[in-house]
Amino acid sequence: MSGKPRLTYLNGRGRMEPIRWLLAAAGVEFEEVYLETKEQYDKLIKDGFLLFEQVPLVEIDGMKMVQTRAILSYIAGKYNLYGKDLKERALIDMYVEGIADLMQMILMFPFSPPDAKEKNLDSIKERATNRYFPVFEKVLKQHGQDFLVGNKFSWADVQLMEAILAVEEKIPAVLSGFPKLQVFKTKMSNMPTIKKFLQPGSPRKPPPDAHYVETVLKVFKK
Amino acid sequence: MSGNPKLHYINGRGRMEPIRWLLAAAGVEFEESYLEKKEDLTKLQKNGSLLFQQVPMVEIDGMKLVQTRAIANYIAIKYNLYGKDLKERALIDMYVEGMFDLNELLMGYGYQPADKKDQHFTNMMDKTKNRYFPAFEKVLKDHGKDFLVGNQLSRADVQLLEIILMAEEFKPDILAKFPLLQSFKARISNIPTIKKFLQPGSQRKPPVREEEVPKVMKIFY
């Protein structure tokens, strides 16, 4: 046993990607096990590994952790990415929860029926440009600091960076009305651990394609 | 200004109910401001009170907190309902996230369109009986204490009781195969702050009635 966290999920972004981002940003090396068949998944359940019969699963510090937010909170707490006090934590929690709502739309997008895809893409664009990005643009403008909370790198910055890149993949000019977010994106890209994660060959997963969608449906079929 | 937290939401359970439970369990008095029509929501959005234009919103300690989990996390830590260290917090978080997922199903039933209700009900009861309640029965069995985590009341216990009572509203004998959940329910219901919250006249909200649904939809859509 290596002592590194071990991630079990499909070989794709899905609900595990924010966890990969956070571990990478914290400079933590990890291993991955990929689910490719229904049988592998059923075996995990039968062997009692999955508290609620679901992945993501992260084996870390002797625990078999499930539930994306529980895992992210633990990592953030452990690696000092969760603010310095209760009030900073509250801000970080609000920001990551808002971003998670936006990311949920992106997560579900590949599974939309073909005739709903255009509408869903418009919804993502609308929410990003009218609800979520303006909030973070304003936060950065008001305090004038490099990071979202407490003048220190936190989970909120990692999550926002991930969201910006994910939305840009779908809507390349989405940051055109957000100068502070553009600066933020550049700064984050240059942080050593994030820079490394953004390079080819890192554990970062590519955008979901038809093969990924097919694997999801196959592995989780009832 | 009274200093008590002030909750902004509809006069109903929805996504605010777990927060009411937590505050009540912690013995914290709170005020409520109810959205009755769309204009009430629009007004809050326009005056910058809602970070992401959404409720729940809770005014507490000089902040206007939004996002159910952010609010619940803040209250849980402040009132010592979040375990004693990072590992206890991890267990609490795992359990509570499962409960949030089940709460979505239970709370969402009343808002389903007529042609989707049956399927939703079946799925909801299946997950309750076959996924979530067995998981928590096993936690109680393996842990062997009065509470789900550690040796003291945490938000996980409060939230589990809430979920149990909601499930029982749909199927009164749902705990038949779960003896430890039965004794857990009795035990946690007797904690003074929780016992008080379970009495008539408290701020606990009833399940949404079918007639109320159109009014709620008008506020949010």
How is this structure best described in words?
The complex is a heterodimer of chains A (222) and B (221). With 222 residues, chain A is an alpha+beta fold. Chain A has 2 domains: 6-79 and 198-212, Glutaredoxin (3-Layer(aba) Sandwich), CATH 3.40.30.10; 86-191, Glutathione S-transferase Yfyf (Class Pi), Chain A, domain 2, CATH 1.20.1050. Helix content of chain A is 55%, strand content 7%. Chain A has a 4-stranded mixed β-sheet with strand order 2-1-3-4, with helices on one face. In chain A, strand 1 (6-9), helix 1 (17-25) and strand 2 form a beta-alpha-beta unit. In chain A, helix 1 crosses helix 6 (155-170) and helix 6 (155-170) packs across helix 7. Chain A is globular and about 50 Å long. The relative contact order of chain A is 0.16. The model of chain A has no long low-confidence stretch (mean pLDDT 97). Chain B has 221 residues and is of the alpha+beta class. Chain B has 2 domains: 6-79 and 198-220, Glutaredoxin (3-Layer(aba) Sandwich), CATH 3.40.30.10; 86-190, Up-down Bundle (Glutathione S-transferase Yfyf (Class Pi), Chain A, domain 2), CATH 1.20.1050. Helix content of chain B is 56%, strand content 8%. Chain B is built from 9 helices and 4 strands; from the N terminus they run E-H-E-H-E-E-H-H-H-H-H-H-H. Chain B has helices spanning 17-25, 38-46, 68-78, 86-108, 114-143, 155-170, 179-189, 192-197, 213-220; strands at 6-10, 31-35, 57-60, 63-66. Chain B has a 4-stranded mixed β-sheet with strand order 2-1-3-4. In chain B, helix 1 links the parallel strand 1 and strand 2 (31-35). In chain B, helix 4 runs antiparallel to helix 5 and helix 4 (86-108) packs parallel to helix 6 (155-170). Chain B is globular. The two termini of chain B are 32 Å apart. In chain B, 38% of the residues are buried. Chain B: Belongs to the GST superfamily. Alpha family. Chain B: This is glutathione transferase. Chain B: Keywords: Transferase.
